[in-house]
Design goal:
- The protein is 8% helix and 46% strand.
- It is mainly β.
- The protein has a 5-stranded mixed barrel.
- The relative contact order is 0.24.
């Protein structure tokens, strides 16, 4: 099966932890107006519940992921984000 380019660049949550080189986990990704699951491969083990970024599609519903946090959301969480008050 050809790679699924629509999923590359999408974020998701691991529903089954990845084991790095030992084997894949499973990720739930919001794509095409819904949510779909894919086998998820990663360079290092990632825990269940980790937010990930899809960086490659291997076809046949398999993707490569990396741990991800949205930098714009991180700024708001730590209180350093711009509040929009330009007084």
């Amino acid at each position: 099966m050809a790679p699924d380019e629509a999923v590359v660049g999408c974020t998701g949550k691991l529903v089954i932890a990845t084991r790095g080189a030992e084997g894949p986990g499973e990720v739930l990704v919001r794509v095409r107006g819904g949510s779909e699951t894919f086998l998820a491969w990663s360079d290092e083990p990632l825990e269940r519940g980790t937010t990930v970024l899809v960086i490659e599609s291997r076809g046949t519903r398999q993707v490569v992921v990396m741990a991800w946090s949205d930098p714009s959301l991180d700024e708001w969480a730590d209180g350093s984000g711009d509040t929009g008050d330009a007084r």
